[in-house]
Structure formats: C-alpha cells, structure tokens
Specification:
single chain, mainly alpha
C-alpha cells in the first residue's frame, strides 16, 4: 500500500502540473521550440498521468481483484494512448518544414 501512495503522490507532484501547464500553453519561451506542438504533448502527458490514479485508487480502496484488474487494463490503455499522442506530435514536428523567421524573410 505504501508504494501506491508514493507513486500517486510522485506523479501528482511531477507529471500533473507539467501536463496542465502545457495544455494551457504556459511553457517558458526557451522550451517552446523544443516542445512544439505544446498542447498535444500536454494531452499526452495527462493521459500518461491518468494511469497512476486509475491503477492506485482501486487498490487503496480495497476493491475486488476483478475491479483492480479492469482498472489496471484501463490504465494501461490510457498509457498507450498517451504514448501514441506524444509519438504523433513528435512525428508531426519532424515532418513539418521549418518556419522562416522574420529576419531571413526580408533578406
């Protein structure tokens, strides 16, 4: 039980604020170029975070093994969906032509 609490607290303190900040487009300018597109990556991180409570809460509540197994499967599906969203966002960024800056456009 202790490890479920530790994992839930760790994910809530690290991954949840990052995901919410990215979804609301509050990313430092110095990181914006590396994290483009910001909002889809935030949704991917939020899906990955959602795995922690879906897996931990039924165990902490003492749910039946069948319920725990179903929640574990649902959490795994969310994690896979989050990884797919992150992968698609990264591939879109790699295949997009670089934007011309305003300085080079006038030269």
């Amino acid at each position: 039980m202790q490890w479920q609490w530790i994992g839930l607290i760790a994910f809530s303190l690290t991954l949840l604020p990052v995901a919410v900040a990215m979804i609301t487009d509050r990313v430092p300018r110095r990181l914006r170029g590396k994290l483009t597109p910001v909002r889809p990556r935030g949704w991917g991180f939020l899906l990955i975070y959602a795995t922690a409570p879906v897996n931990a809460v039924p165990r902490l509540a003492g749910a039946s093994p069948d319920t725990t197994l179903a929640c574990t499967a649902a959490g795994g599906g969310r994690a896979v969906a989050g990884c797919l969203v992150l992968g698609v966002a990264t591939l879109r960024r790699l295949h997009r032509p670089p934007a011309a800056s305003s300085e080079t456009a006038w030269r």
